[in-house]
Write a structure and sequence with these properties.
GO terms for molecular function: DNA binding; sigma factor activity. Keywords: Sigma factor, Transcription, Transcription regulation. It comes from Haliscomenobacter hydrossis (strain ATCC 27775 / DSM 1100 / LMG 10767 / O). InterPro entries: RNA_pol_sigma-70-like (IPR039425), RNA_pol_sigma-70_dom (IPR014284), RNA_pol_sigma70_r2 (IPR007627), RNA_pol_sigma70_r4_t2 (IPR013249), RNA_pol_sigma_r2 (IPR013325), RNA_pol_sigma_r3/r4-like (IPR013324), WH-like_DNA-bd_sf (IPR036388). Belongs to the sigma-70 factor family. ECF subfamily. The protein has eight helices and no strands. The protein is 67% helix and 0% strand. The protein has 174 residues and is an all-alpha fold. The protein is elongated. It has two domains: 74 residues, Rna Polymerase Sigma Factor, Chain: A, CATH 1.10.1740.10; 57 residues, Arc Repressor Mutant, subunit A (Orthogonal Bundle).
């Protein structure tokens, strides 16, 4: 029994305690976070006991409370980790007065890069070019009829291969 007080909410919470703990672990994937989530849920259940309708499914009510707490905590965490760029958009725009020297266009021309891309096997070249054209991974996977993970790995390995080819063919220019 969780508490010495004989209260129907405490008794029902005690009965579903193991299920709630398992569900909290499933949501968080971490024992410490699961314990915190369970405790937050238990407190919320006890403080809102008057809102529970006797005779309804207590476990479903408790699981809903736990899920909502988890979602709210996740959203708070995402908002806390979000970085907002307050830089004015025109900060990096060239005013036309002075050009920044950049020899990148002289090192490797676009045509030379495309010749390197053409050396890739078709299974890698096609998804890479679609990604280059701005397609999302999901769109590429759907268009090519391949699993999403396969598309991501092919694009990754295409990039690695192109980096290697670039170093082999154009290193002496740098």
């Amino acid at each position: 029994m969780l508490y010495a007080i004989q209260n129907p909410i405490y008794e029902q919470l005690d009965k579903v305690s193991n299920s709630l703990r398992a569900f909290s672990l499933k949501l968080t994937g971490n024992y410490n976070d699961a314990d915190d989530l369970y405790q937050d849920t238990a407190v919320r259940i006890i403080t809102n006991a008057d809102k529970y309708n006797q005779g309804t499914n207590f476990k479903a009510w408790a699981v809903t409370i736990m899920r909502n707490i988890f979602i709210n905590n996740y959203r708070k965490k995402v908002r806390r980790n979000m970085i907002v760029d307050q830089t004015p958009n025109n900060f990096y725009i060239n005013s036309g007065e002075e050009r920044v020297a950049n020899d990148g266009e002289h090192d490797v021309a676009f045509g030379e890069l495309m010749r390197l891309v053409d050396t890739l096997p078709n299974d890698f070249r096609e998804p890479f070019l679609m990604a280059y054209d701005g397609f999302k991974y999901e769109e590429i996977a759907e268009e090519l009829g391949s699993p999403l993970g396969t598309i991501k790995s092919r694009i990754f390995f295409a990039r690695k291969k192109l980096q290697k080819l670039y170093e082999e063919n154009y290193r002496e220019r740098a």
